[in-house]
Amino acid sequence: MTTMSSDGHSRRDFLFIATGTVAAVGGAATLVPLVAQMNPDASTIAAGAPIEVDLTPITEGQAIKVFWRGKPIYISHRTKKEIEEAQKVSLADLPDPQTDAQRVKKGHDQWLVLVGICTHLGCIPIAHQGDYDGFFCPCHGSQYDTSGRIRRGPAPLNLAVPPYEFVSDSKIKIG
User: Fold this and answer.
1) Which of the residues 9, 77, 128, 140 is marked catalytic?
2) Which residue, of 6, 113, 122, 135, is most buried by count of CB atoms within 10 Å of its CB?
């Protein structure tokens, strides 16, 4: 014979509800860390994040190297002479024809921002070197001009221009 309490619930009903509640809480407690471990860690997120670079300390004629997404990025503060030389080059003389205006932001001709990886085999070129006073890759002799365009050597393409924008006249955001 089963005894029932006056409100119609038995001890067995209470045990079913309590067991179900503990199981649900335990399941949630197990799933939270499982799902959390699938998210990328902070260093991975930071590696792909845009970076801001202050241009104020870069003097005219100087090139600096920063890293974005593990790639070297050259930021060059070009002189008037370097800009004029880059602008007067005939497109017929270039293996990968591209005007200087296509490689810089309008109104900021003095700033050249390039991915510093040679398009031949991925070496890192040296700034202000070579016959064109641009970039020289010591691995196989590729030479780029003051706009990062290939002029001589085995590299098939110009140095890449990363996505960037001017946040102000003295600061850029790469990425």
Assistant:
1) 140
2) 135
Per-10-residue mean pLDDT for the chain, 175 residues long? 60 88 90 83 74 94 93 95 93 92 94 95 92 92 94 95 94 94
pTM: 0.74
Angle at 93 between CA 99 and CA 151, to 5 degrees: 85
Q: Which of 168, 166, 143 is nearest to 155 (CA)?
A: 143
At position 24, the amino acid (one-letter code) is A
CA angle 160, 164, 169 (to 5 degrees): 125
Distance of alpha carbon 16 from alpha carbon 45, whole angstroms? 45
Residues 6+ away with beta carbon under 8 Å from 97: 91
